[in-house]
Structures
1.
Amino acid sequence: MTDSTDRRTIVITGASDGIGAAAARELAGHGHEVVVVGRSPEKTAAIADELGVEHHLADFADVGSVRRLAGELGAQHPRIDVLANNAGGIFAKHREATVDGHELTFQVNYLAPFLLTQLLHENLVAAHGTVINTSSAANKLFSRFDIDDLDAQRRYSPRRAYGNAKLAQILFAKELDRRYRDVGLTSTAFHPGVIASSFSAAPGSAMRAVYASRLAKLFLAPVEKGADTLVFLAEKHPGIDYPTGEYFVDRKPAKPKRQATDAGLARDLWDRSVAMLADV
Ligand SMILES: NC(=O)c1ccc[n+]([C@@H]2O[C@H](COP(=O)([O-])OP(=O)(O)OC[C@H]3O[C@@H](n4cnc5c(N)ncnc54)[C@H](OP(=O)(O)O)[C@@H]3O)[C@@H](O)[C@H]2O)c1
């Protein structure tokens, strides 16, 4: 149980299932004020009821839904200590566009969390808060990041789109940390491990064969293991207990793909993301 002076308000997206739900359970168990965000009304209400915490719904494939979510969270929580941008996944074989006209994987894993973070900026700064992005080792394995083709108009494969979005989450964490560390708002990204969750479980999902195979189930780690670094980053003191602006694996800073450390690319991505969201 945490000391009452260190009780934090922790918003976790993708908390209706898998790694996010496991992190919510652990952090609520430690006495923090956890706010769960999910897409499925039934799953989100079930975890919120189990933990006795507040919940919100949003579909990240719809920018309007993210704006509504930010409005609710912002009004109810003037101070947010931790925003865990954890919702995400890998999707279907063929490129799909969202109602906002962006490639689905890019929007759900990166652009929607980018927007949510922008809209909660004041609430995060008020708490000297931190933003934790659930990235993936896919940033190294699958990305071929092209700043001129963020929406994968020219080249799409589900793995590449996923790797690119997870690399964008690292660039975003680094740029957010660089811009606002001096006013007390920090950020990190992390890889949770290869985890047995509902990840890639949907029919037609690109890595379903890998994650659903009987052999894989023997090697996949439990969701609690996937939540471990998230819980560590959320509870410890950013900048004191661990360095910010970094990509973590197993609670330690690790090397992402070289492109993810390109400060010029991070600035460019930030500016283009703002422009992409200007008219939606
Ligand atoms: N499992 C792994 O091996 C692994 C490895 C590296 C990184 N990751 C990352 O870890 C994070 C959590 O994944 P997980 O393994 O816990 O998978 P999961 O069990 O499938 O959970 C995914 C979560 O994201 C939410 N979500 C998916 N699409 C959404 C959308 N359009 N709008 C809003 N929320 C949406 C889901 O909400 P609903 O259930 O309510 O629809 C669910 O809460 C993801 O970012 C994933 O990319 C996972």
2.
Amino acid sequence: MGFDDVLKRYFDRVYTEVDFVKKTYSSLKDLGFNDDNTIAATCICRDEISQTLRSIIKHMWGEAFNLSSLAGMFFAGKTGLSAAMHHAPVEDGKERYVFYALPHIAIDSDGKPGVCRREGREGASTACGALAAFQKEMAGGRLNLALDNEDVEQSLLKTRLLGEIPYGKVPDLIELTKITQTAIQADLERTLDKVVNKDISNYAVITGIQIHGPENNYVWPAECYAIVNGKQIHLKVE
Ligand SMILES: [Zn+2]
């Protein structure tokens, strides 16, 4: 199976990063969000190959608050989110925010998940490296779950994601990336519930998985919605 076959099999629809951000921008524009009245925030991996998405978001929405940790995990917490949620311009008594939260995975031309090439380096590289390291540790049957003060984000990632994996199961990297996407979304939403004042804030949650192909980056959209005047509105990304 090559890249296209794997994509078709595991991700029902994908868009280029530019198309994905453009589509979400235009759906949100219909709901009153635009680059003048809205602040974007991103929760994506620290990996530099993930930053193309952040650059496009910045290009469309302006400078974006950074909530990101390894693998795109949401560890910024109430403090990080509260900070972001006091920064938007106030227009007609409303603040507007858009959150892009996506883990990532590479798939090479042979369809091998986790494998990518990096400019100026020989041989294969890994993405997401943090998720691949966790998966490898699980597959090896010895998982260190102590909080390592010299590896704080990876320790938190392992503990958080392990709670989403059935006991004894070792997910493959694609499964693990999908599990990560739902965990990031759940953590962001749970914290939003605690922090946001829906009377004054309209916001959107855009989730999915960033996919690094052999030639281009793509996004598989997961749940995407806006909360406008306290009401949830599903966003069509198509
Ligand atoms: Zn990563």
